[in-house]
Structures are given as structure tokens and as C-alpha cells.
Amino acid sequence: MATVKGKTMEKWISEFPDLGPIINYTPFYWSNPYVKDNKTAFQSQPLQLKDIQDAEERLKRFAPFIAKAYPETEKAGGMIESPLKKGNQIKERMETITGQRIPGAFYIKLDSHLPISGSIKARGGIYEVLKYAETLLLENNLLSEKDNYSKIAEDKYREFFSQYTILVGSTGNLGLSIGVISAQLGFRVVVHMSADAKQWKKDLLRERGVQVVEHPSDYSKAVEEGRKEAENDPKSYFIDDENSKDLFLGYTVAALRLKKQLKEQEIQVSPEKPLHVYLPCGVGGGPGGVAFGLKAVFGDAVKCYFAEPTHSPCMLIGMMTGMHNEISVDDFGLDNRTAADGLAVGRPSGFVGKVMEPLIEGIYTVSDEQMFRLIAEMADAEGIHLEPSAVTGLMGPSYVVQNNPKVTEEDTHLIWATGGSMVPDEIKEAEYQKGLEYKMNPDAK
């Protein structure tokens, strides 16, 4: 009889009954029994609010450079930020699809339309590259924190950075964000990409002068190879999606920005008027960083949930069993094959899983068929095209309402849309047409 980490499958399911539907690819909601109140949860955290504020100050220093290098950010003063949009139409469609009334307001955070690289990865990936660049310049007496950082766009800085190489392993969007900003600064860039990565993302990187190394295996292998290559070159810097605190901090800053947007739109957030946030999750860095920032800023007034593909629920399995990165979806026979390339991860980040274990309310899974249908629903309802991974947040509110009778009209639901604006038109159309086919089949799971 096959065993997983020394236990039979029957033993695993007897200890964790929720594994049954999960290993059968059935869409499922798991309520996190390890969640704690905010004060208790933050007592043992490796990062605090002051670290998030420090990251925000660094991004403000770089704003003049960003505005100069990327004119599309000029109006926002060099800030890489996305709109917050009300989603009344898609809310109505989700109520029809799920048969579940959803009390409360419905909003969409359009990280799918972030400047420069068009996905949530623009937050963490770009931040870590900028921090590394700043560190090099400060160490070599080429920059002072009091300088106007727009001068970093000058050729002499590009020549300096050309001595150094930045490497990353990616399924797509992280590699895209790191590749684009690193090449702009003048770094040599190598992106190791897994078999799941979309061809158009590889092509776009190559157009920007980035070296793309393709691997026939999954995300973990791409990361392993990138890390290995960096170890052999003292002037190489590897951005570790699984363990990087700097990458994580880049995502956390979103909470400070969101707080301002909520205030501008007169959306109140308090324990009596909670904010529910739904975040697509792959290895965990992006959603973990955003959720951590939100908990640091809003405390117990915010409730965070992760969404994963039924074929790649790595964070769910890692957190549920308490084994985090010591266990993978492959151990349970799941194939880790999904159209949601950014979420096609078999093993979660141990760092993120342990940080988030006491902070998130739950995790749920979404099938590929549901994703494609939701692409069409979102396009028809709101005129917005999202990638398959980016629509997974839409399923969250119905799950939460089903499992939490305390949700009222005073609550606010926020769908974090993570990518899609840079998808080529022909691929958008193909995904939309596939979604229409599933719309015609209301029984699609």
C-alpha cells in the first residue's frame, strides 16, 4: 500500500478528513483552525508594521526614477499602484452562478492593471530589484538616500549595473516583473521558467533583452536551477520567491496604499464592518505579503482568504497538515497541471505558510473550468479581462457567506485581481471564447 511521509492515504484522511475532496480535485473551502487574534498572531512574527513602512519609504525614494523610466507612472508621481473598482455587476453574476446571496459591498482591486508588468508581481518583484540596486549604489558611494533618484536612469548607472546578474525562477508573472525592471536598470537578467509558463511571457522577456532558460519540469525545478546558477557567480543575485523577506515586503506595501483608497471612497473598515479579501495563491509570496500587510494595518477588522487551483492546492495541503514546504501536491497524487500558470506550484513557501498560519481565515480551491467561465463573466459584466489565476478570488465570497452566518450588509468583499492586462489580444479572445463554452454549461465544475 502506497504511503505518504510514512503514513497510508487512509491514515492521512482519518487525521485530516478534508483531504478526501481535495485529492479528488473537488472545489472545496477549508476554514483555518489555526487562526488567532491579531495581537497574539503578531507577537511572534519576524516582520512588523515598521518594516512595511520602511519599504514604502524606499519606494518613495525611487519614485522619481520610476516616473522618468516609465512615463505611464508620471501622473501617479512614480508610484506603482492599481485602481480600486466597485463590482456591482459581477457581484450579481456571482450570486446567480453560485445560488448564494452575498450581503455587503463588492469591490475589485485591479493589480491586473499595475503599471510596468501588469500583475501583482510588480509589487514584490520590482521592490526587491530596487532594494538590491540601492544597496549596490550605496555600498559603492554612487548614491545617497538624500539624492534625487531620477539620476539612476543615466547611462553611467546602467554601465555599473551591467557588471551584475539578477536571476529568478518563475512560472511567468514574477519573471516578467523582475526581468522588465532589471533590464531597464541595466542588469544582466536570467529568468528560469517552468513548463507552465505562457509562451507570450517568454517572448516578451526576450524582446526586453532578458535571457530565458526554459525547463520541461515544474516551478520548483526552475527555482532550484536559478538558485544553483547564482551560487557560482559572486556578482549574481538570486530572487527567491520561496523565502525572500524583501520580496514579501514589497507586497505588504499594498495595504498602506489600499487604506488611502478605501478612505477616498468612504469605505469604512472596522471589527463591526469587516473587510474580506480574496487572494489567488501559488507559492504564497504575493498573497501572503498582501495579507500580512493588511493584517498589520487593519488588524482584526480584515479577514483574508487564499484561492488555489484544484490541481495545485499546495498552500492548503501544507497548512492543513502543518507540514508546509515539507509536503507537496505530488505526494498525494495531484498532477499540478492548471491553466492558472502563476498558481501551478506543487510545494508552498515554508516561510510564508508559517507566517500566515495564524493570520488567514481560510483557503478554497477553484477548478480550471470555473476559472474560464469566470473570465467570460468578468469580461461581460465589467469589461475587464483577467488571467485564469486572477479570477479565482471571485469564488470566495459565496464560500465565506456559506460558512459565516455573521456576514451582513455592513461587510465589504474585495477581490484581488492579480493579472491579465498584458495578455495578448488573441489569447484574451481564445480564453474568453473558452469561457463562453462553460457559461453555456452551468454544471461545469
Descriptive notes:
Helix 6 packs parallel to helix 8, helix 12 packs across helix 13 and helix 16 packs across helix 18. The protein is an alpha/beta fold and 445 residues long. The longest helix has 21 residues. The mean pLDDT is 94. It contains 18 helices and 13 strands. The strands form 3 sheets. The protein has a 7-stranded mixed sheet with strand order 3-12-11-10-13-5-4, sandwiched between helices. A 4-stranded parallel sheet has the order 8-7-6-9, sandwiched between helices. The two termini are 31 Å apart. Its EC number is 4.3.1.18. It comes from Oceanobacillus neutriphilus.
- Topology, number of strands: 13
* Beta-strand residue fraction: 5-15%
The main pleated sheet reads as: 7 strands, mixed
- Total DSSP helices: 18
Q: Supply the helix-strand structural class.
A: alpha/beta
Terminal-residue CA separation:
31 Å
Would you identify the regions where 5 or more consecutive residues have pLDDT less than 50?
none
Helical residues, percent = 40-55%
Query: Overall 3D geometry?
Result: globular
What integer is the average pLDDT? 94
Computed CA radius of gyration, to the nearest angstrom: 21 Å
- Order of strands, main sheet, comes to 3-12-11-10-13-5-4
